């Protein structure tokens, strides 16, 4: 899998995948774009939501699923100390035992299958090649 990122203006870039999807990338605070860290956070939250979706809906029926991710770092730091991901589910239609089962099953699935959060937990090497 390759994502191409192309400069479109001053501090403006567009990321594209092979399926035709695009996302605008820019500096922090730039209107209409995601910063690179925001994309990383979206990837973490999205991976958790996608990994848990089928398990959740199979046990709860159709309910809203919302995931959020926040970076953990001191102000002005250029490295994340961590990423906090939360999954917001309305499990009020289930008894306490069923709620606990959903939480446990989704946690196990995310820990085993979510590529983004599993990668963030490791200290993977990033290799830069300048052509």
UniProtKB/TrEMBL annotation:
Signal peptide feature range: none
InterPro entries recorded: KH_dom-like_a/b, OsmC/Ohr_fam, OsmC/Ohrsf
A Pfam family it matches: OsmC
Name of this chain's protein: OsmC family protein
Organism: Actinokineospora xionganensis
Biological classification of the source: Bacteria, Bacillati, Actinomycetota, Actinomycetes, Pseudonocardiales
């Amino acid at each position: 899998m390759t994502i191409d990122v192309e400069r479109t203006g001053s501090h403006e870039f567009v990321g594209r995948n092979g399926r035709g999807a695009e996302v605008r990338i820019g500096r922090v605070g730039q209107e209409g774009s995601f910063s690179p860290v925001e994309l990383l956070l979206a990837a973490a939250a999205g991976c958790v939501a996608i990994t848990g979706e089928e398990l959740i809906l199979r046990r709860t029926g159709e309910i809203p699923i919302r995931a959020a991710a926040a970076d953990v770092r001191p102000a002005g730091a250029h490295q994340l100390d961590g990423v906090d991901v939360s999954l917001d589910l309305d499990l009020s239609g289930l008894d306490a035992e069923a709620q606990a089962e959903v939480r446990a099953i989704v946690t196990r699935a995310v820990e085993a299958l979510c590529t983004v959060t599993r990668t963030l937990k490791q200290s993977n090497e990033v290799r830069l090649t300048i052509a």
